[in-house]
Model the fold of this input.
Amino acid sequence: MTNKASKGQCPVMTTTAGNPIADNQNSQTAGPRGPVLMQDYQLIEKLAHQNRERIPERTVHAKGWGAHGTFTVTHDITRYTRAKLFSEIGKQTGIISRFSTVAGEAGAADAERDVRGFSLKFYTEEGNWDMVGNNTPVFFIRDPYKFPDFIHTQKRHPKTNLRSATAMWDYWSQSPESLHQVTILMSDRGIPKAPMFMNGYGSHTYSMINAQGERFWVKFHFKTQQGHKHFTDAESTAEIGRSRETYQEALYGTIEKGDFPQWKLYIQVMPEMDAEKTPFNPFDLTKVWPHGDFPLIEVGVLELNRNPENYFQEIENAAYSPSNIVPGIGFSPDKVLQARIFSYADAHRYRLGTHYESLPVNRPKCPVHTYHKDGTMNFNPPSPNPDAYYEPNSFNGPKQEEGYREPPLKISGDADRFNHREGNDDYSQVRALYNLFDAGQKDRLYQAMGGSMAGVPEAIVQRALGHLAKIDPSYAEGVGKVAGVAVPRMAAE
Done:
């Protein structure tokens, strides 16, 4: 007997160990009325697997949608980077994407007002490069110490098990650095209609290093080629009533019918030493770089053109981390980026297992040579040289290559816990954004923001309005009118 399928026949069902299964309908029992025998390993295996079908969902960015695609270089940026994926015009690199909401759980509705994650894994010849960003160029925090606190405000109250508008506004009203992101979140761009209709940003400042060892600071921008389309609060409520899976429906359906969405990649570039000359901290995640000073430079085209065959294996198992960089792309002193380099990979080790990067969707397309040993999910083939399991060794094991060394990162100052709110202007850039809005956009901003304050204690709302008044008095007045709370006199003056 063999468990291979004959031509035209179904294959023989087996256990995970490959043992053929004779009966998948009836458990083994002591007599027709039971009880069940412990030796029925097929039953135990089946039940045990079912218990483990759900891995822990992501603490943040739990609800996601994604697809495979390609990135094609259209413009030469080799003066800024030696990264081989940008080495020549026309070069194409495979990618896998994952878009997500930030605050909601895995069962949350797609069309809720929330920041969207925008993550890409580039399978380059020098290893995987992960661009792990959002659909906004800034974020709510500039110091990673505050990330767990901020995320707690977006999750459920420990007593009521409900989302808390009070918690959100209590935090935001005491954290003026969040106003830039909050303004974007409450604007028209707060609810994109589908992933295809939003931009993606690296948000952080990164390094690019060229063949001469010169460092440049860069920002990554992925501009949608489908145009921006957004829901109002009323439209999103109606859409959620129709379906909670609108993003998945739209993204999957669009690709399935051959209408492949595209984004153009642009970078902003700053010479390394110019970081000392800007009137703002270029490594502050709550700030943007003015396009007039640092114009967008076109790089290439991202296209999504293939749906996953298995969502769990290819999208849910996909693990992105800013720690995945390639020669020619590096980090910056951005404090939040520095923390994410650790926290993302560590989250994957907890959620997926120690060797999560050995899963097919995460495994690089290039050869991998490490000295990692044992642990959960260690299913890599054994080294061809079993003696080379430490480094340095005398048995031709993998060795370092000095040619990949980055130039030293210039730092200065004392080691201390510095107050990140001292000396920072948290209002000017938000004012510039607010002044770009027309009357209709401003009114929708007031409605969304004031509506989100329903049930929040008046003292907290007034504190938030005080910050909005420092941006523009009309901003505070418009939101206060919708919220039904007067702007504090001192703020109004």
